[in-house]
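Exam prep: given the inputs below (a chain plus C2E), describe the expected output before reading on.
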Amino acid sequence: RAKQQGKQQSCFFSQGLENDLNERMELEQVLREAIDKNSIEVVFQPQIDLASQQVIAAEALARLKGKDGDYIPPPKFISLAEELGLITKLGEQILRKSCFAAKDWYDQGKPIRVCVNVSALQFCSEGYFDQVFAVLEDTNLKTSLLELEVTESLLMQDVDLVEGILRDLSLTGIFIAIDDFGTGYSSLSYLKRLPVDVLKIDQSFVREMLDDKQSMDIVRTISDLGHSMQLKLVGEGIETAEHEQILKSFGCQMGQGYLYHKPLHKADFDRLVIQGALIS
Ligand code: C2E
Ligand code: MG
Ligand code: MG
Ligand code: MG
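Solution:
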């Protein structure tokens, strides 16, 4: 009996493992193909100035479709690209598409800044600064219309290296945001000496703040910190008017979330935001 069960179990485990391997191989294939064809999609989620309700920036978010036609969660294919040593190339393609979009908005008379997520591995890779600059030159985008979103965990890596690259980027006029702020462990004294422009308050705190006093306190504390360091604050994951109202009461200047817009394909972004069609 026990033997039988053991056999069944090992059978179950190896089946699970095989599925995992197949899934990974399939994902790797899809990812390599997308990079070869430069076919990664990028969608844009508006960032709203809470006082004027105007769209002043947009976060670029990468999208990759699996063989079944469903989108694969970005953290999944981004981390695989990191593992396979493909993130530099993938990241450049995403950056290029993002800057190209922002240049087009600018040409249409709407200087909307594009905010691009940067993986820690890409950020620390040899020649990252040159890559960013080459893309800006090729797309003819002003530095002030590009914002790079880095994570708190990146700041904890090679401190001197990271600080140096941040400084070089910032000196050119590129904006620097810290994404998912509050989920990492960056020390305040370190943060203070970094050339950072924006703190993005992690959406988990925004989501939970109505039900959880601690989350509310964290949002208030981050807001106070942002003010004392003269940083712009962006509330992420705003889904209700109440979320917005609380963030505004803490002095948060900008917001991003489903209350305003989901991430949009470029054509929809242009129609809804740039041409201001009254469809939404
Ligand atoms: P993130 O940078 O914090 O991006 C915000 C995520 O929250 C996006 O998920 C967005 O679609 C989602 N979101 C926005 N508003 C709301 C809301 O009101 N409610 C809820 N529940 N969610 C909202 P997405 O696109 O699935 O991306 C997940 C994460 O994957 C990103 O988190 C980022 O860390 C990473 N990622 C996405 N695109 C890229 C990329 O091009 N490069 C890198 N390195 N990472 C990326
Ligand atoms: Mg982000
Ligand atoms: Mg600066
Ligand atoms: Mg975030």
